[in-house]
Amino acid sequence: MSCTIQVRVDDELKQRSDELFKELGTDTTTAIRIFLTQAVANNGFPFEIKKVTPNPYALLTAEEILRKLEDSRKQAEKGEYKDADEVVSDLRSKYGI
User: Fold this and answer.
1) Is the pLDDT of residue 26 over 80?
2) Which of 8, 10, 26, 9 is nearest to 18 (CA)?
3) CA pair distance 87, 71, nearest whole angstrom
4) Which of 17, 48, 77, 87 is the most exposed place for a label (fewest CB within 10 A)?
């Protein structure tokens, strides 16, 4: 026996998801069925759900950013800097980028 699930979504979301799933060779109904199957198999969401830490620089003005860059240049001239790989790793872990 099967049942019907009705979900209300924004028109644009429905259209975009229909297009995406068509490009992937399936349809939205099948994609939802896959999601539910995987949720049961994983005993939870089949993907990571996490709160994204906001970018601390998003609210800075151009002048504040330039001032921070200048401070960074002065520190680098004194030999006070981090390796680029370390910085990228730190950004990824803190901000999910």
Assistant:
1) yes
2) 26
3) 16
4) 48
- Name which of 30, 8, 27 is nearest 18 in CA terms: 27
Token pair of 81 as six digits = 């800097």
Q: What is the DSSP string of 29-55?
A: HHHHHHHHHHHHHHTS-SS---PPPPP
- Domain residue spans in the chain? 1-49, 62-95
* Model confidence pLDDT, tens digit, residues 48-90: 887 777 787 888 889 999 999 999 899 989 988 888 888 888 8
Place of tokens 């970018």: 55
- Alpha-carbon distance of 29 to 5, in angstroms, equals 10
Let me know: does 30 contact 21? Beta carbons within 8 Å.
Answer: yes
SS3 state at 84? helix
Structure tokens belonging to residue 80: 């006070």
User: Which of 92, 59, 6, 32 has the alpha carbon at shortest distance from 68?
Assistant: 59
